[in-house]
Amino acid sequence: MNILYFASLKESLNISNEEILATPDMTVMELRSLLINQYGERHFPSNILCAVNQVIANNSTQLNNDDEVAFYPPVTGG
User: What pTM value is reported for the model?
Assistant: First the structure.
């Protein structure tokens, strides 16, 4: 999978993307757990958004090795 990081997440991790192999039946929740173990929970709070192949995903979304998975903090404006 190609994992993309945006905005402040990209800055705090000091990386814009990386490749990760999906395990069989991997879900977004399992990927989040893997990333939390690698980078720390502070980078992946519960309000961080995830999109799979440019469609907003939830924790139960199934992942495959050919997916593009993007993580980004919620957008605020005013």
Answer: 0.92
CA distance 20 to 51: 16
Tokens of 56: 């907003």
Full set of structural domains in the chain with CATH: 2-72 (3.10.20.30)
Residue position matching structure tokens 């919620």: 74
What's the pLDDT at 49? Answer: 95
Question: What is the tens place of the pLDDT at every residue in 56-69?
Answer: 999 999 999 999 99
Beta strands of 1-78 (E only): which ranges?
Answer: 2-5, 17-19, 49-52, 55-56, 68-72
Strand partners, 69: 3, 52
Q: Across the chain, how many H-helices and E-strands are there?
A: 2, 5
Q: What is the mean pLDDT of residues 25-42?
A: 96
